[in-house]
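User: Please run a holo structure prediction.
Assistant: Happy to. Please share the sequence and the ligand.
User: Here you go; the ligand is nicotinamide-adenine-dinucleotide.
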Amino acid sequence: MTVLIIGAGLVGSQVARILTDAGERPLVMDQRLQREVLAKIVDLGKIDLIEGDVLRPLTLSAALARGNITAIVHTAAYPLLTLGAQKNPYAAIELNIMGLANVMETARIHGIGRVVASSSSVLNRYQSGGGDGGDLSREEAVPRPNTFYASTKQAVESIGLNYTKSFGIEFAALRYCPVAGPWSGPGGGGPSGIFRAMVENAVNGREAVVPGTAMEWVYSKDAAMATVQALRVASLGSGVFNITMGRIFEPAELAAELARAIPGVQTRIEAQPPGSTWSGGDWKPADISRARKILGYEPQYPMPRLLDDYVAWYRAQVLGS
Ligand SMILES: NC(=O)c1ccc[n+]([C@@H]2O[C@H](COP(=O)([O-])OP(=O)(O)OC[C@H]3O[C@@H](n4cnc5c(N)ncnc54)[C@H](O)[C@@H]3O)[C@@H](O)[C@H]2O)c1
């Protein structure tokens, strides 16, 4: 059994690492392979790498024709996620939606039985409307995503679920919340970059800026483990799963955790500008009970362990100390 991983970034790299740790040899495809960055996460001698664009169905088809691929993990998305899609909606719509459509259609043609795709917890949050008393004969009964990125992820979920219904391809859409984790090149979303700068500044003795809003995080290793669990569970069927740490961190709590992990660190909590995409509103942790029950997901990296692991990786792999 070989898994094709599309997108070798913050999450895809960890999926590759978990599979190689288990003795598998995944095929990893990315449009812009960051080999040196990837090598700090996974042994490149234990994976097969191809440069390829998910928007080119023939490239995808050629990857699947390499043989013995039984499942696909699809993590490619338009760079900088919400921020990127707000700046370049057309390109994000094309990549996020048509990328998934290409994956599903190629899977159908090649007889691939299972696809695990990345969705996002933005769908738990960036929604508005949902009125008309839930009466579906009326226009505003359902809430609608209110960012371009969330709109694309809604399409990803719906299209994937329909491929199960019509063609029997098992499909999971994993709603990761903002992902923090080891990565030393471009990648991840806005919050991933803010978390990364916070950790790197703290380790290097500079002021660490803590995002000034309550946030729910997930470690990239936990996001990747859930992804692998969705590959392995005997009967996946189709479904959408929240993949988060299961709790929210207030800015002061995060600053305190950082101070514990890196004694002597100087922190500053940065207020979010009004109207910022991730400030304000009710903030409730995602319910991860379905992922627990069906995938066997259990977050292994609560914030203290996340920070210790991340800091150790950064010191060893980036600073070489
Ligand atoms: N990082 C987060 O905070 C977060 C949160 C929720 C959901 N997600 C979702 O998880 C998935 C993975 O996110 P990530 O943080 O690993 O992102 P990332 O940017 O680190 O990795 C995505 C990878 O996809 C590649 N890619 C982009 N366009 C491509 C194309 N046309 N063909 C092939 N590869 C292409 C990029 O080069 C990159 O290496 C995405 O779908 C994202 O929407 C991420």
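The chain has a mean pLDDT of 94.
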